[in-house]
Amino acid sequence: MSSLSDLIEQYLRDLLEKRDSIEIQRRQLAQMFRCAPSQINYVLETRFTMEDGYLIVSRRGGGGYIKITRAHWHEDPDVLGKIKESVGNEITQEGMAALLRRLVRESMLEEKDSWLLWQVINHELENPVFPEEKKDKHRAILLRTALLVLCGRK
Amino acid sequence: MSSLSDLIEQYLRDLLEKRDSIEIQRRQLAQMFRCAPSQINYVLETRFTMEDGYLIVSRRGGGGYIKITRAHWHEDPDVLGKIKESVGNEITQEGMAALLRRLVRESMLEEKDSWLLWQVINHELENPVFPEEKKDKHRAILLRTALLVLCGRK
DNA sequence: AAAACAAAGGTCAGGAAAGGTCAGAAATGA
DNA sequence: TCATTTCTGACCTTTCCTGACCTTTGTTTT
After folding, report:
1. B4, B8, B14, B16 alpha-carbon torsion, rounded to 10°
2. Is the dihedral of CA A93, A154, B104, B133 positive or negative?
3. Which of residues 68-127 of B touch A (CB under 8 A)?
4. pLDDT by residue, tens only, chain B of 154 residues
5. A113 min Cα distance to partner chain B (Å)
């Protein structure tokens, strides 16, 4: 049996079939499906997460809206998981080098972008605010963030 | 859909597209959009701030006016330096929003990429490993890294 | 010259209109 | 049954917008 959440999900997915990005009004959508507005949040939280390949941006107040955008990961939903998994909670410089090579080999990253990433992250980590013993953690965080952004681009 | 503030903002931006500096009369503009004069101030305060790269000068009394001047960035030879500078050692979420808006306006970043960055960084900062009191520092680090990578390509 | 008036723009509290959060009830399925 | 998922309602935060009142500047009157 498909629940109301499933129906709302389907409705939004259909819209996103045609466009990369849609804008909705929570109140209006809730009225359309005769449910509580917070139901919309539930659907977004459970079915349109970053892991699912979607981005949500919203604004409150008069003229408020919720914008849903498909990220590039959407085409290969596993990319996000793969990146998170391969980077892990900590990563050494060698680990980063190996990962970047692999991503380039698998065409998930362009050569020049990987080089740029390497430069920027290494440079950033020279900042003395990063204590030596935590560098692997910070490297992981920086690398993950930058990769998610780069690979999420169209 | 889009609020009155959005419309007024758009109108002013269009004018600033052609000239770097414009002079308006609050009363007249308010009449044009059929709103309270203070609405104009609201738009200026929320959308034409210094962080956004605008300078506002005004004069009261008879023959009073409001002058809006827009600062440029993209012609600067050291854009990356400017970016580092504006990110600084710490940056609030609002500061990040303003900077992203500005980069988009200056065509140094695509709008989609700015959403992506926004989402990824906010998502990353939700990770409990980042203590609340250090979020502004971490936000700065993540934002700087990601922006240098994104804006440093080509 | 001083006072009064007129014509700008500035400030701020507060109401209205969005969306966000979260505990817990209700439904569902194993 | 009992764990999980769905759903709602009460309450919160953010954004928009107005109106009453204030300050500054220029002009006119006395």
Report:
1. -150
2. negative
3. 112-113, 115-121, 123-124
4. 689 999 999 999 999 999 999 999 999 999 999 999 999 999 999 999 999 999 999 999 988 999 999 998 877 788 899 999 999 999 999 999 999 999 998 889 999 899 999 999 999 988 777 887 888 999 999 999 999 999 988 6
5. 7
Provide the token pair at A56: 């949500």
**Residues B146, A145: C-beta atoms closer than 8 Å:** yes
Strand C, CB < 7 A, residues 61-100 of B: 61-66
Two structure tokens written together for A136: 């692997």
Strand D-proximal residues of A, range 54-93, CB below 7 A, are 59-64
Option in B3, B124, B148 nearest A63 (CB): B3
B30's CB contacts (< 8 A; 6+ apart) are B36, B37, B39, B40
Domains within chain A, CATH numbers bracketed: 4-70 (3.30.56.130), 74-152 (no CATH)
